[in-house]
Structures are given as structure tokens and as C-alpha cells.
């Protein structure tokens, strides 16, 4: 089994830095992504929020993904009585408790946990086998927007999620982009709870082809319950890819999208669920919505320019949460998977993206692969005002991708 690229002392120093950062006043410390504008938290949500909080805290200090998740689940188990973070099934009749009081307790418990990791002997887990089978690169930028509402999910090995729970797809890889609107709460909720939904639906899902649609349905039920309880009217797009047995299964809702470098060209695998899609416009009209022009842009009932989303419980007649899906077996000409928010796709020229890839590959060694998304995203974002999120997933060994692209 492969070992971590960081030594035990290096990891301990990063845990110590994370603990110290949590002691800073909220306006001073680096922002950990937690839900805001929320009054209460349900018992069935506590575990996912605990795991996501510690995971995000550790990732801000560059703790490897597998170690950050391993520690986050250890934390949830160790403090399950104090933080109510035992595994509890989703239940619409579940009780809730104060978010603000709980968040203060969560922060204090996290500081204790991280301190103990630092001062006590601890055996850090090795990197999971085949972790680097599908290497990745990421780019994100708030751009001209006041807040960043795009979120990403990067799981090269699904086995790091709920390690003590039976998981048929533990060797699968999961990548996703969620673009929140009307607030970031729904996108944050997906990051914290979508992996759990994917595990929970396995027992009732006969085919891997139905896994992502069933998980989308499960997370949407939870988001609708959450939004209704908290009087939130927002939602989020979702574009997700699950790689299992050399097959890429993908699903999407909204105008985040998925593309593929196949041979010598980038092709779009997804179609936008927005009012530029004539079929979608006809569907929302048939559902009883009006299409109004707001500042020269089409909007569903004068509000949204997308026609499908997770959330928006009060607008489900028109803004549906049914994903479109697709799949393909990774063939000899399939090199890079792209998952991005509309801040990228709305302004990106596929020819220019490909030219940027080729230029970067020819100017940099393959060891710099983690900077490829930045090389693609930086010139694109200059033509956009929206949040930008881009995941680049290598479907072949990096050296093979470099060889192919250098000859384009």
C-alpha cells in the first residue's frame, strides 16, 4: 500500500496549524465553509456537517484528502455524544437544535481533537491503493461576484467516505461541481451530504446506471426539507461523474456541465438546463411558468435563468430536479474529463481551451499536471464576471496525456 507523501512530523505540524487557526476570531481565521443564514440543525444532518467541517479545516492546511477524511470520521465518532454526530438516517420528522450553539461547541471540540492529534502518538493512514489512478487538477475563483457560491467534490477513492460502512463502490472515483444560487447553503449541503446519499441508495439500487439518479433524488429530498424548515428559497446546480470499472457515469442538473477531451477535440457531454434550451423553455411554460425578460435576460417567472436545480421547494412544478444522465467506457481516445460551472462554460471556447492545454503541456513537465486547470481557467475567467469552478480529471496516466497533447 502506498504511503503518504508527507511524513508524520509534517502532518502533525499541519494539524497544529489548523488547531491554532480555529482559535482565531472568526473574522481573522481562514473561512471554513459552513452553512450560514441557518437557525437550526437536524440530528440527521449533524454527522455530515461535522465531517465536512473538520475536512475543510484540514484541507485549508493542505492535509491530503484521504487523511483529512480519515481524521474527520475519527472526529465524528469520538465526539458523537457531544456533537450528536452518530450516523442517523434521514427523517422528515427528525428533531433539530440550535445551529449557533452547536457550531461553537463544534469549534471547541475540533480544537481539542486536533491538539490531541498533535501531541499524542498517532498512526496516520497510508495513501489508499490506486489513489492516483485518476489524477486531477482544480481551479476556482470568486471573480467579480461578492461571494463564492461554487463548490467542488473530489474523491479519487470513494472508500474514504464512511470507512466503517459497507460500500459496494469503494473503489470508484467521484467528482462533482455544485453552483449555488440564492445563497450558498444548498451547494454546501451537497458537499456535506451527497456522498452519504450515494452510499445510502446502494442497497435499493439494482444497477450502477441508476446510482447517480437515485442519489440525486435522495439529496434533493433532504435539501427541500432543509430549505422548507429554514425558509430558504435557494438551490444549486449539480454535475457529477462516478468512475467505476473503467466506465464514466455522469449526471447533471442545471447549467454546470461536463466535457471530454476525446482525440483531438473537446466535446460537450451535457446540455444546459436553462432557457437557452428550447425544449426546457417549452417544458417550464407547459408547467405554468411565465418567461419574463429581466434586464434583457430570460428568467423563469422573472427569477431564475435555469430550469432544473436541486432545492427550490416552492417552485418544483417548473424547476424540476430530475437529472439527465450518460455514460461511456474509457476508450483509447478519451484523455481528460472536464466538470465546470457556467462561469467557465458560458464563455469558454473549446478550441481556445484545447490551445491552452497544448501550450501548457508543451511548456511544462508532466509533474506540473496539478496546474493545468489554472492554465485553462485563468484566461477564461477574464471574460466572465461569474464564479468559476473547473475540475480536470485525467482519464489516462498523466504521462500518456502529456504525450498525446504535445502532438496536437
Number of helices: 12
Count of individual domains: 2
* Uncertain runs: none
Major sheet attributes: 7 strands, antiparallel
Describe this structure in words.
By secondary structure, the protein is of the alpha+beta class. The chain has helices at residues 8-23, 43-59, 65-78, 80-83, 99-119, 185-200, 211-230, 278-286, 342-345, 350-363, 372-381, 398-406, and strands at residues 40-42, 96-98, 136-141, 150-155, 173-181, 235-236, 238-244, 247-253, 257-262, 265-268, 291-294, 297-300, 310-311, 324-329, 334-340, 388-394. It has 2 domains: 8-119, no CATH class; 133-273 and 308-406, PPM-type phosphatase domain (Phosphatase 2c, domain 1), CATH 3.60.40.10. Strands 4, 5, 6, 7, 8, 13 and 14 form a 7-stranded antiparallel beta sheet that branches. The longest helix is centred in the N-terminal third of the chain and has 21 residues, at 99-119.
Topology:
Elements: H1 8-23, E1 40-42, H2 43-59, H3 65-78, H4 80-83, E2 96-98, H5 99-119, E3 136-141, E4 150-155, E5 173-181, H6 185-200, H7 211-230, E6 235-236, E7 238-244, E8 247-253, E9 257-262, E10 265-268, H8 278-286, E11 291-294, E12 297-300, E13 310-311, E14 324-329, E15 334-340, H9 342-345, H10 350-363, H11 372-381, E16 388-394, H12 398-406
Antiparallel strand pairs: 1-2, 3-16, 4-5, 5-6, 5-7, 6-13, 7-8, 8-14, 9-10, 9-15, 11-12, 15-16
Helix pairs in contact: 1-5, 2-3, 2-6, 6-7, 10-11
Protein name: PPM-type phosphatase domain-containing protein
Amino acid at each position: 500500500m502506498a504511503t503518504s507523501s508527507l511524513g508524520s512530523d509534517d502532518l502533525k505540524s499541519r494539524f497544529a496549524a489548523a488547531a491554532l487557526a480555529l482559535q482565531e476570531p472568526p473574522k481573522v481565521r481562514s473561512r471554513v465553509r459552513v452553512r450560514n443564514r441557518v437557525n437550526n440543525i437536524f440530528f440527521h444532518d449533524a454527522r455530515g456537517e461535522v465531517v465536512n467541517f473538520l475536512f475543510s479545516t484540514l484541507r485549508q492546511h493542505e492535509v491530503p484528502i484521504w487523511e483529512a477524511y480519515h481524521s474527520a470520521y475519527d472526529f465524528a465518532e469520538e465526539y458523537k455524544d457531544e456533537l450528536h454526530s452518530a450516523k442517523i438516517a434521514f427523517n422528515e420528522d427528525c428533531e433539530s437544535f440550535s445551529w449557533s450553539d452547536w457550531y461553537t461547541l463544534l469549534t471547541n471540540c475540533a480544537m481539542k481533537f486536533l491538539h490531541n492529534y498533535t501531541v499524542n502518538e498517532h498512526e496516520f493512514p497510508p495513501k489508499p491503493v490506486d489513489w492516483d489512478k485518476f489524477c486531477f487538477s482544480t481551479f476556482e475563483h470568486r471573480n467579480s461576484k461578492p461571494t463564492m457560491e461554487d463548490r467542488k467534490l473530489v474523491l479519487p477513492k470513494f472508500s474514504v467516505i464512511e470507512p466503517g460502512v459497507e460500500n459496494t463502490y469503494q473503489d470508484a472515483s467521484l467528482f462533482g461541481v455544485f453552483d449555488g444560487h440564492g445563497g450558498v447553503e444548498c451547494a454546501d449541503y451537497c458537499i456535506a451530504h451527497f456522498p452519504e446519499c450515494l452510499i445510502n441508495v446502494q442497497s435499493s439500487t439494482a444497477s450502477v446506471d441508476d446510482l447517480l439518479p437515485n442519489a440525486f433524488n435522495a439529496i434533493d429530498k433532504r435539501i427541500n426539507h432543509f430549505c422548507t424548515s429554514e425558509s430558504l428559497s435557494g438551490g444549486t446546480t449539480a454535475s457529477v461523474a462516478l468512475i467505476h470499472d473503467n466506465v464514466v457515469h455522469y449526471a447533471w442538473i442545471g447549467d454546470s456541465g461536463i466535457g471530454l477531451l476525446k482525440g483531438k477535440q473537446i466535446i460537450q457531454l451535457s446540455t444546459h438546463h436553462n432557457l437557452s434550451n428550447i425544449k426546457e423553455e417549452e417544458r417550464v411554460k407547459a408547467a405554468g411558468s411565465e418567461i419574463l425578460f429581466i434586464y434583457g435576460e430570460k428568467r423563469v417567472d422573472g427569477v431564475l435563468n435555469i430550469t432544473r436545480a436541486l432545492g427550490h421547494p416552492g417552485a418544483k412544478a417548473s424547476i424540476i430536479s430530475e437529472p439527465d444522465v450518460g455514460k461511456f467506457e474509457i476508450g483509447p481516445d478519451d484523455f481528460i474529463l472536464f466538470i465546470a460551472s457556467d462561469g467557465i462554460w458560458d464563455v469558454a471556447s473549446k478550441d481556445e481551451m484545447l490551445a491552452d492545454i497544448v501550450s501548457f503541456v508543451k511548456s511544462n513537465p508532466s509533474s506540473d499536471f496539478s496546474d493545468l486547470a489554472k492554465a485553462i481557467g485563468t484566461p477564461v475567467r477574464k471574460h466572465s464576471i461569474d464564479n468559476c469552478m473547473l475540475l480536470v480529471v485525467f482519464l489516462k496516466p498523466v504521462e500518456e496525456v502529456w504525450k498525446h497533447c504535445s502532438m496536437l
